[in-house]
Amino acid sequence: MALNQLNLIMVAKGFRTFIFGAVSVMTPIYLAVLGYSPFYVGLGLFMIVSGNVMSNLLLTWYGNAFGRKRFLLIFSALMLISGLLLFSTTIIWLMFLALFLGNVSTTGTEAGPFQSIETGIIPSMVSESRRGRVFGVYNLIGYSASSLGALAASLPSYFRESIIAFKSVYLAYALVGLLLFAVYLRLKNIEASGRKPGLGHMTRSGLNDLKKLSLLFSIDAFGGGFVTQSIMSYWFYLAYHVTLKDLGAIFMVVNIITALSILAAPFIAERIGNLRTMVFTHLISSAFLIMIPFAGSLAGSLLFLFLRQSTSQMDVPTRQAFMANIFNEDERVSANAVTNTFRSISSLPGSPIVGLALSSSLLYIPYTIGGGAKILYDASIFLSYRKRTS
Q: How many angstroms separate the CA atoms of 174 and 95, rounded?
């Protein structure tokens, strides 16, 4: 039974991240093609992140009481509605509403409600010794699918960037929402044993860890908000006039590199521990990130981007395994939802600030602020947890 449940989650992860990969690369370019300024592009990305914040807040307070499965079905239905709205209109305020409702990911990873629930229930389906590898496979599927989605984002370029070609991708987004609804209907026995709303079911030590990790993850997410996949796609479009067709290919390669590195992460963690793997690989990636705008050429910037991706997400499966070890079974979904909420809130300033910076031709701003914040996070979490866990 647990294996069948796990397979359903893996299928959902694959389809969801495929379409997220396409939409995250394509959306800022689509808004630009429609004639909207960098400020409005940044505001559109802000609405996406705001929607993730709202969904995680609802999940935090009512996930156990209302039911995890019901929330998965609601979020899938909202994807369907969002996709249909984006397919049917180019009115900016309606598009912002759709981006808010759809729980779109602007990155190759997710911080939205789907992943909050899935990473909270996966540990109960496998033994503790297998968690790292299962999370590795879970994220490998996500990044592999996202790489194909990034390539699919170049579809409109083959049709002279016609509006209907862009809209067809959003129609596919709606259909994936419908598919997820059907998949999640088959999930069973995923509810928490307690049905208290809010955080009343958490232990005192769990709450203390939740507060500390929410703060630490917020520092990381603040930096990440300046360098989402959507922002970097738009940055290469502005800085080097890279076409949508080439952007699709570039971010396909980016996500393939990421997927391969993620597969190696659990094996490294088995040797040096989850925390050390999280921190050491992340520090290396942040150094490469800061170098991207100073490379002086498209080839140089791409080289540093690819080098950054070779280690940047190795902390994802190890962080998920780290969280599974810190929190008990009933706490995990809430802990993921709360920390992801703080991650999303902290990433909110990135998009509008980047929009203003790029409008002023300050092309180095996203990478220097983003990389600097991530280095601060790495040092802080290592100092906080090095004596408690490796």
A: 14
Q: Which string of DSSP letters, residue by residue, matches 244-280?
A: HHHHHHHHHHHHHHHHHHHHHHHHHHHHH-HHHHHHH
Minimal CA–CA distance to 334: which of 9, 71, 10? 71
Q: What percent of the chain has pLDDT over 90?
A: 49
CA 312 → CA 18, 108, 116, 182, 260, distances in Å? 20, 11, 20, 33, 12
Per the CB < 8 A criterion, the answer to whether 298 and 240 are in contact is yes
The three state secondary structure string of 90-152 is CCHHHHHHHHHHCCCCCCCCCCCHHHHHHHHHHHHHCCHHHHHHHHHHHHHHHHHHHHHHHHH
CB 216 within 8 A of CB 323: no
Written as six digits, the tokens of 255 are 């996500």
Phi-psi region at 200: left, alpha or beta (left = phi > 0; alpha = psi -120 to 50): alpha
Residue 1 has pLDDT above 60, yes or no: no
pLDDT(107) > 70: no
Q: Compute how many other C-beta atoms are within 10 angstroms of the C-beta atom of residue 157.
A: 18
pLDDT digits (tens, 9 = 90+) for 19-48: 998 998 889 889 999 999 888 988 898 898
Judge contact between 44 and 99, C-beta under 8 A. Answer: yes
Distance between CA atoms of 268 and 70, rounded to whole angstroms?
37
Alpha-carbon span 204 to 327, nearest angstrom = 11
**Structure-token pair, residue 365:** 């701003």
Residue 168 structure tokens: 């067809």
Q: Say whether pLDDT at 233 is over 70.
A: yes
| Contacts with 328 (C-beta within 8 Å, 6 or more apart), sequence order | 203, 206
